[in-house]
Design brief:
- By secondary structure, the protein is α/β, with parallel strands linked by helices.
- It has two domains: 6-245, NADH:ubiquinone oxidoreductase-like, 20kDa subunit (Rossmann fold, 3-Layer(aba) Sandwich), CATH 3.40.50; 247-331, Cytochrome-c3 Hydrogenase, Chain A, domain 2 (Irregular).
- 39% of the residues lie in helices and 10% in strands.
- Bound molecules: iron/sulfur cluster (SF4) (2 copies) and FE3-S4 cluster.
Amino acid sequence: MPEETIKKNLVDKGVSRRDFLKLSGLLAAAMGMQLPPLQESGLPMSLGTPVRGAQTEHAILHALETKMRLPVIWLEFQDCTGCTEAVSRSVSPSLTNLVLNTLTIEYHETLSAAAGYQVEQAKQEAMKKYAGQYILVVEGSIPLANDGAYCVIGGRTALEHLKEAASGAAAIIAVGNCAAYGGLPKAKPNPTDAKGVWEIITDKPVVNISGCPAIPEATTGTIAHFAIFGTLPELDNLNRPKTFYGKTVHDRCLRRPFYEAGKFALSFDDEGAREGHCLYKLGCKGPTTYNACASIKWDQGLSFPVQSGHPCLGCSEPNFWDGGGFYQGQSAPLDRPTVAAVGAAVGAGAALGIGAALVNQSRKKAKKGGS
Ligand code: SF4
Ligand code: SF4
Ligand code: F3S
């Protein structure tokens, strides 16, 4: 393990005591106030589970002051880097930012200053030095078709990199729908035979922080849980932390009163849409999608897709992208003539054109559904 405590590292980086205290409060909230049993957490008896409020914060404070920093190796395979972008774009002094300061990111393709042979060498050394101790974060799916030829880094396939890094990891966190369930690369016809991490690594705990991108607080909250307590949070049947994926988008949606009242938008520019009515009839997958976006939101709690007027596409579920609302047609080009219109819009570089083509498609569906 790295030699310094989480607290010392934070202090050395100029984090004030006030922000340090704020971090423990934020962590308590992010972890849903659930501490692991005493024997697993190593906390004093008085701080055992279950605890709430100030006592929880005190327990986290104690852990931050005494626990060593956690080494992290972050691999990227078939991804768009959006999940890394989401985590790295947080504004200080956010939970995400502070938690990242407590980690020793030994390897990260996008964030590392080094490149090529040098950075591969650094990864090898880190895996050796922290064998059995590090957290492996994976972003992006793993292609199996054609012997993995679709994703090769440093002359070796994504599958080889994953298996090697997983063998020495204490736990694995699959960040984003691509790494968790295959995501966009797995959309029909899935030419690379893209897989999620847990379909390949079955002898190690794999936590799925699904979403496209994954919510940064869910990623860092889960890493922080392991850093502080040495255990993973409680998971659902799809290996997602219950704290963040225990409720549907629909459960916490601000448009829910309109759903209950039977008031639906039937197109993106009708009166219902302007009045903020429910988007269910425009293909919203909120009722069957488990994610924390309706409560944590994005950009420091500013908004989330449904609040901005866009139906939920189910980005945290295993059937994303093919099962995703009114965009479904884009994933099945051979079956859907409407895709030609979408393709033309893309060719013209007209983002609004894409929207128009899709709106027309959804209008037809909505008209069939009625109000
Ligand atoms: Fe990009 Fe979405 Fe995949 Fe994350 S889950 S890497 S944002 S495509
Ligand atoms: Fe539910 Fe979607 Fe309607 Fe929100 S917009 S209430 S998530 S169906
Ligand atoms: Fe994803 Fe639906 Fe939330 S598309 S970000 S789970 S609103």
